[in-house]
Design a protein that fits this description.
The complex is a heterodimer. By secondary structure, chain A is an alpha+beta fold. Helices cover about 55% and strands about 15% of the residues of chain A. In chain A, strand 10 and strand 11 form a beta hairpin. In chain A, about 35% of the residues are buried. Chain B is about 45% helix and about 15% strand. In chain B, strands 2-1-3-11-4-14 form a six-stranded mixed beta sheet. The longest helix of chain B has 28 residues. The chains are: A alpha+beta, B alpha/beta.
């Protein structure tokens, strides 16, 4: 499935962002929970501290009152029975104390040993007080003892008290019995404070969150509580360790956060408890804002990332579609780009290699075609030359042959010396591997320039420490004379041993004796033409034999023989041209280089006879009867047979020349021949290459050029496809095989 | 069918939508919201915001009041704070309010007389004409800054004397009519074991100290001295008298000392409060006492049945004279100058003065605790126990303005109130009350702020001297020296100034009326 670069970018960035935000969120969650719980604990401690301060301030006020009364000379114990009027005076003294102790609801004074209690507005016996007042959990006798003579502070935890002294209503109250005076053991009596639990409610009333319980313990006793939650004091009462202020407790299947504050001076312990769910709710409330902000930030970031990803992806997508438009549906952009770049690199390398190699090859090919006179007309020669960067439209041209030198680096670089000195002219060259020589065509307006070039080549060749020879043909003006020019140069080159290396060997130096022979040979040539024209085999043999005898009896150089043979062949081919169908020429049946490779007269005889046989076979077809039209596939096959060494041969051109589409040609060819034209071409080239590999020592590169490839890489690949092994492996195998056979014979 | 259902739902939605719009448009005007500082008794444990009665008034007036309840003990400081901090409520309800200070001097109260002249407060204004009510409510600058609270039931005195009829019967004694007769009866109560338990545990007289309800102040009436907590009264000549300086004061103390000496008077009166007093009386072992009435009080029904009312006895050469109560208008309500909607406030207040609302506020819901009789008058059906009424209606902390004549026309008092009325009628008929109530001096006659402050200071100085002297002389005996010393101390404490200020106030009042 195709994943666009945009999606990959977007997913990657978003993933990073999500990881980042997840980390932040997790951190916030963790720290917020701790911080909020700590803050709530701190808040509760502050609250408990304030409650403790207020509570202890109230207790202090009560204790101060008791101490002051104990020290006051106006407040002295007396016998009510004996001095009842003192009760009035006492009450007058109690009024201001009652007024300042607003925390307590009731204040009763008793003198040591006296059975009477006084308030600022009333007095009664302790018996009457206990009768009129019902304490839920304090025993009346115990209370009597505590009221009548204790020198220590007694705290009565909150309990229900019903008293007709207090409108007969029932209230929950906390009691404090304090000794009168600050001297323990010598108190005047007791001061009994009753504090309504509602006063404690006022202390606790500041709780913003009503969902909490507040407790005050006196020692292990619960003094009072404000209970909003179903959690009893027993369940929440725990003794904190040193420095411990809070604890999470479990009760009734719920978790509770209990916070405690201990006051050592009065032995009070203040505690509050709230549900952990409340804490958690606070955490979420706090976090929700942050999360909303983070969410908004995340959304904005994702949007920004998508925008950035889009911006980043767009040029990549464009590059991708440029590099591999057809692959866009199957591969992602980066793969496409990678693949495209690899293809481009390979192609570029191939093209560079081709460019590097093809121009010399093409020039070489041009040289061979020029020499072989394979161009149909002069215009074609000029166009081909122009396509190769050669300006051959000059008045004169000549063929230069020089010995190949390994030390002459890149001898066919026509832009370098010595060719650069060919002012207004141009030169192009090719290596004649079999002759171990370089062949140059030189075109110029002035003969001197060509001679000068030849001289420069000679010097160059000699100057490299080479014992090479440079030969120059006669200068020609017509392109049709190219084979002759070659032969002239070759003849001159072959006479290098006679002529020496001090100067350029020219055809003119050895052409003199040829002029006498040619007219006599011409007669025999005409006889051969006539025999061919008459299709008379016997006469033909006779004429050829006569020519052979003439040549054998005439003392001539091999060059002369070849020139005569070339002339004979030229005459024959021109005279027989009309007989040949489809514009073919007699020269198609013979190669100028074959002629130069003939070393004996017998070789020339065989060559001439083969040519004549060929012409005779062509002529053997019934006269006046049009030969059956050859089908395009056969023609194409023959064309490939003839041109498979041409690197420029193309199926498209073949198909077009036979008015067929490439596909049609391919299909029909395969139907007829059992393989495609390309495979046929490759097969031919491979067979030829095998021959060269077996029979020559040409390099792989040289063979590849000779069998029609621009570069050795293509040749090697194709060869391996057909043969199943590389050219080198093939050569090695065949060489080994030959050695094996040889040794067997031995 | 389904399609019909969908259409029906659509139609219903449209109707509801349109109906919703209609309802919104047809809604009654939004209720006016006001705040009030509400006085409540110390032992009231109710939230006025929860009272059914105020929901009823809100429905009638479209005025919703949010109450801040303030206990009696915190009332003065709460008021001071509210005025001082400037966060005044719209309304101040019941309790007490210094109208001269906050209305006349500081202009922090809304003058209501102008609104009444414009026709606001029709229920309330219609009852103002009776007696001197308007005068009582008019401030020194001539404006009325407050609405009064008045339950006029023809009460003319505070405490009535009750004697143990069972003991009288047991000892075959008639109800005493003189101090001597009373003293003799008390001796018999003490000596002759009227409760029949074989012990001399009877308490012939049980009193508290310095008030006119259960306190010994009432005993001074036997010697013709209407002693009240302000220690001043008016003689027949219209002169303000300072009670401790009167001869009857010393005579009474001598008699009381005699009672104390003979243990005929429980000496605990010096220091005991009303709760202890009630506890003792409820023991059924007391011969005589004074009290507001018997029924529906702190006394148990069994004890009540033992007693009968007794006219004040008169010492030889004296006419019994108890302080006379007059209808005193208490503070009912005031509007602060921060009030956000005066007209709505007056509408809400006046609705409470509508007869049925007013009686409901005092006695509970019609058909439950309150009945409407065929003659159109309202009567109490029963009195719920444990102050249950306070959970529905404000009772005496609400707005009430019922002059005697009007009240009699609309209300049949409960039996305990009828009882009180009967006692008052008896005492009136017996001629044992002041001719001119000292309340005119202490409550009705308008005082200047300076006079008021000075009187308060002087009273604070005089009262301990007087009460101390009473304690001393009742317990240790009356001597000329003590009396001379007391007189000197009182003069030093400003008794003459105290009296003369009251005289000045009374003279002014007389001139104005």
């Amino acid at each position: 499935m195709r994943r666009s670069i945009f999606i990959r970018y977007a997913l990657s960035y978003t993933l990073v962002l999500l990881v980042l935000f997840s980390g932040i969120s997790a951190y916030l969650l963790y720290t917020s929970q701790r911080q909020i719980q700590e803050r709530m604990v701190e808040t509760q401690i502050n609250r408990l501290t304030r409650i403790a301060m207020q509570h202890e301030s109230a207790i202090s006020a009560m204790i101060s009152t008791a101490e002051e009364m104990g020290l006051s000379p106006q407040i002295e114990g007396f016998s009510y029975e004996k001095e009842p009027w003192k009760a009035y005076e006492l009450q007058m003294q109690l009024v201001p104390y009652t007024a300042i102790n607003t925390f307590c609801d009731q204040m009763y004074l008793t003198f040591r040993g006296e059975d009477r209690m006084y308030t600022s507005a009333s007095s009664m016996t302790i018996d009457r007080f206990l009768r009129m007042t019902e304490f839920e959990s304090t025993d009346p006798d115990t209370l009597r003892q505590q009221l009548q003579g204790q020198d220590r502070i007694t705290v009565l935890p909150a309990q229900r008290i019903r008293s007709s002294l207090m409108d007969g209503t029932e209230s929950r109250m906390v009691g404090f019995i304090l000794p009168l005076g600050s001297n323990p053991g010598a108190s005047k009596g007791s001061l009994f404070f009753l504090v309504k639990e509602s006063s404690y409610r006022n202390l606790f009333a500041d709780a913003i969150d009503t969902e909490l319980n507040t407790y005050i313990f006196y020692g292990d006793q619960l003094l009072t509580q404000a209970e909003d939650l179903p959690l009893s004091a027993q369940e929440v009462n725990w003794t904190p360790k040193e420095g411990e202020y809070s604890r999470v407790l479990s009760s009734q299947g719920e978790k509770w956060l209990a916070v405690t504050l201990e006051d050592r001076s009065w032995g009070m312990r203040y505690m509050t408890a709230l549900r952990m769910s409340t804490v958690n709710a606070a955490v979420w409330r706090s976090l929700s804002n942050v999360m909303i902000m983070l969410g908004a930030l995340l959304t904005a970031s994702v949007a920004l990332i998508l925008w950035i990803a889009r911006r980043h992806a767009r040029p990549i997508e464009e590059i991708s579609s440029l590099l591999a438009p057809e692959a866009a549906e199957r591969k992602d952009e980066l793969t496409q780009i990678s693949s495209g770049i690899r293809q481009l690199t390979a192609r570029n390398s191939e093209l560079a290699s081709q460019l590097e190699q093809s121009l010399p090859m093409r020039r070489r090919y041009f040289v061979f075609r020029f020499i072989k006179r394979r161009f149909a007309e002069e215009g074609e020669i000029a166009r081909a030359a122009a396509g190769l960067g050669l300006d051959i439209d000059k008045k004169y041209y000549g063929v230069i042959l020089c010995s190949a030198s390994e030390e002459w680096d890149r001898p066919f670089e026509i832009n370098q010396e010595p060719f650069a000195s060919l002012r207004g002219g141009s030169a192009v060259g090719a290596e004649l591997v079999a002759m171990k020589a370089y062949l140059f065509l030189a075109f110029a307006e002035e003969p001197a320039l060509i001679y000068d070039l030849a001289e420069r080549i000679r010097r160059k060749d000699s100057g490299e420490g080479n014992n090479g020879v440079t030969a120059l043909s006669a200068l020609h003006t017509s392109y049709t004379e190219a084979p002759t020019a070659y032969l002239e140069a070759a003849a001159a080159y072959e006479n290098r041993f006679v002529m020496g290396r001090e100067r350029v060997v020219t055809y003119g130096d050895l052409s003199a004796n040829l002029e006498d022979v040619l007219p006599r040979a011409q007669k025999i040539t005409n006889g051969i033409s006539q025999a061919l024209a008459l299709n008379n085999r016997e006469r033909l043999d006779e004429q050829i034999s006569e020519l052979l005898r003439f040549l054998k009896n005439t003392s001539m150089s091999p060059f002369a023989f070849r020139m005569i043979y070339n002339d004979v062949i030229d005459t024959l081919t021109r005279s027989q041209a009309a007989k040949l169908a489809d514009g073919r020429e007699a020269r198609d049946f013979y190669d100028i280089f074959t002629l130069t490779s003939c070393q004996t007269i017998d070789d020339l005889d065989e060559l001439l006879r083969r040519l004549c046989d060929q012409l005779m076979r062509e002529e053997a077809e019934p006269q006046g009867q049009t030969p059956p039209a050859e089908d395009p596939i056969s023609q194409a096959a023959r064309y490939i047979d003839a041109h498979f060494t041409d690197p420029e041969i193309s199926m498209a051109a073949i198909a077009e020349s036979f008015d067929l589409s490439t596909a049609k040609l391919s299909l029909s060819f395969k139907e007829r021949m059992g393989l495609t034209p390309s495979d046929y071409l490759t097969l031919l080239r491979s067979e030829k290459a095998k021959e060269l590999l077996r029979e020559t020592e040409l390099t792989i590169r040289e063979i590849s050029v000779q069998v029609g490839y621009y570069d050795s890489g293509s040749f090697i690949r194709r060869f391996k496809q057909v043969v199943g092994e590389t050219p080198l492996q093939y050569r090695k195998e065949t060489a080994d095989s030959s050695r094996g056979e040889g040794s067997t014979a031995t | 069918m389904k399609r019909k259902g969908k259409l029906g739902a659509l139609a219903l939605s449209c109707v509801l939508l349109l109906g919703g719009c209609g309802v919104k448009q047809a809604q009654a005007p939004e209720k006016t919201e006001l705040t009030a500082l509400q006085y409540e008794l110390e032992n009231m444990a109710v939230d006025f915001n929860d009272l059914w009665f105020y929901d009823r008034i809100a429905e009638q007036t479209d005025v919703e009041v949010t109450f801040t309840d303030v206990k009696d003990s915190e009332w003065t400081s709460a008021l001071s704070l509210a005025f001082a901090r400037g966060n005044m409520p719209d309304l101040i309800l019941r309790g007490s309010l210094d109208v001269e200070e906050y209305g006349v001097s500081r202009h922090m109260l809304v003058p209501l007389d102008e609104y009444m002249a414009q026709g606001f407060l029709p229920n309330y204004a219609s009852r103002l004409a009776e007696g001197n009510l308007r005068e009582q409510l008019t401030a020194s600058d001539g404006h009325m800054y407050q609405l009064g609270f008045l339950i006029s039931q023809g009460v003319n005195t505070n405490g009535h004397f009750f004697i143990n009829q069972d003991w009288l019967d047991a000892l075959n004694l008639a109800v005493p009519t003189t101090v001597e007769g009373l003293t003799e009866a008390l001796r018999k109560f003490r000596e002759e074991d009227p409760n029949g338990n074989g012990l001399r545990d009877e308490i012939p007289m049980e009193f508290t100290f310095d008030d006119n309800n259960t306190g010994i102040y009432n005993l001074f009436s036997f010697f013709g001295l209407p002693l009240n907590e302000e220690f001043v009264y008016l003689d027949q000549a219209g002169q303000v008298c300072f009670a401790p300086e009167q001869a009857a004061f010393a005579e009474t103390l001598e008699w009381m000392h005699q009672l104390a000496e003979e243990r005929l008077l429980d000496i605990d009166f010096i220091s005991q409060g009303s709760n202890i007093w009630a506890d003792k009386v409820n023991e059924g072992n007391v011969g005589m006492f004074s009290y507001w009435r018997l029924q529906n009080t702190a006394l148990s029904p069994q004890v009540i049945s033992m007693y009968r009312v007794m006219k004040p006895v008169a010492a030889e050469g004296h006419r019994a004279c108890l302080p006379r109560l007059i209808d005193l208008v208490e503070f009912g309500a005031a509007l602060t100058t921060d009030n956000r909607d005066i007209e709505a406030s007056l509408r809400w207040l006046d609705a409470q003065f509508e007869t049925e609302n007013m009686l409901v506020s005092q006695n509970g819901e019609v058909g439950d605790t309150l009945l409407r009789q065929e003659d159109g008058r309202y009567a109490v059906a029963y009195v719920p126990e444990d102050n249950e009424l306070y959970r529905k209606v404000p009772v005496i902390c609400g707005q009430f303005f019922a002059p005697a004549e009007y009240y009699a026309q609309v209300y049949v008092p409960a039996s305990h109130r009828q009882e009180k009325s009967a006692y008052c009628a008896l005492y009136e008929e017996a001629g044992v009350l002041e001719e001119t109530s000292s309340k005119i001096l202490t409550a009705t006659a308008r005082k200047t702020g300076e006079e008021d402050a000075r009187l308060t200071r002087l009273q604070a100085a005089l009262k301990p001297l007087i009460n101390g002297a009473i304690v001393d002389m009742v317990t240790t005996g009356v001597t000329e020296e003590k009396l001379t010393s007391l007189a000197g101390k009182l003069r030093e404490a400003g008794s003459e100034e105290y009296r003369s200020i009251y005289q000045q106030i009374y003279d002014r009042w007389q001139a104005e009326n």
